[in-house]
Amino acid sequence: MHLAQAARHFPLLGPVTEEDLMGLIRTEFGREDIFEQFIPYGQEGHLTRVVAPQRILHIISGNTPHAGLQTLIRGLLIGAYNWCKIPSAGLPEMARFREYLPFELARRVEIACDLPGDWVGQADAVIVFGGDDTVEYFRQCVRSNQRFVAHAHRFSFGVVFDDPEFASVAGAARDVSLFDQQGCLSPHVLYVRAEIAREYASRLADAMEAFHKENPRAGLCMADESEITSLRDEFLFRAATDPGVAIWKSEDSTAWTVLLDSNPHFTPSCLNRVIFVKPLPEELAPSLRRVRTQLSTVGIFPATAENARQLAMIGVSRICPIGKMQLPAITWHHDGRPVLAPLVRWIDFEV
Question: How many CB atoms lie within 10 A of CB 237?
């Protein structure tokens, strides 16, 4: 399939095969031919089929390009024409992906940095990636007969139940550093078994430095630099009197920062490769209460079924191994919801 072939040029998507894409359709709709004919559904004499939207408007943020590529792939997969509004600074991955498509698919993709005035009104479905203000703005713009799917701001974190060999450290550094921590899948906090938390933070600092040497962080504006500097100063002051607090930081720059903090409550990072390491409490849920409704992904180590079971009910919608937080499968339930079904209409035929 052409979509899978094009996806292979973008490692940030992870493996995407034709079977993965067909499996996504089968999983959400039961069978692949439901877009082409009526099929039995429910009780005897009841048939149904699916009609895809003719036009999907994708409002894509610039923080993580893989979200934009995934939503475009899904739109093409169900046969829609796709309008992609990208940030004013551009998102070159979108145009590159279109270049890898055959003409008949490429003509179904239109990309613009400025939102044409008729796109919102003419779209059958509107998918929005962005902050809460952006989501609310477009929510007010759409009509009741338009499909609307919003992906607002979310928080992610990691949990290291045990890691005596510190085998997860390099993967954790990668999860924190990719996309400069700008995406919803980027961890803000790593909860680590208390007995190894300090040593884990120290080794994480070494891994962050190693990743930085190969993949330098993007430049920052003065306000972002100042925010990191201020947070570093705060932790240096606290560390002087609190043995549960420590800081590791890049030399002569704000490239990366690791903050050990004995307070278990979830602390949002100021981003740009600033990560909190906190001791894992016996009961994690109370520490996450303030962000429970905004949680996305938790990376875990070891990635066992038992460890996943312990975290399944705390509010997250995705659990994965540490080191793979930034690589969701094309079939994942984004924000805990099906990704194709909310876009379509069902037509029932009762014999």
Answer: 11
Are residues 147 and 100 part of one domain?
A: yes
pLDDT tens sequence across 25-72: 999 999 999 999 999 999 999 999 999 999 999 999 987 799 999 999
Return the structure tokens found at 174. Answer: 């990668």
Q: What is the pTM of this model?
A: 0.94
Number of H helices, E strands in the chain: 11, 15
Q: 293: helix, coil or strand?
A: helix
Peptide bond into 302 cis (omega under 30): yes
Say which amino acid occupies 19.
Answer: E
CATH value at residue 54? 3.40.605.10
Q: 346 in a domain, yes or no?
A: yes
How far apart CA 182 and CA 217 sit, in angstroms, is 11
User: Tokens at residue 117, please?
Assistant: 């005035």
Map residue 242 onto helix, strand or coil.
Answer: coil
Write down the pLDDT at residue 208. Answer: 98
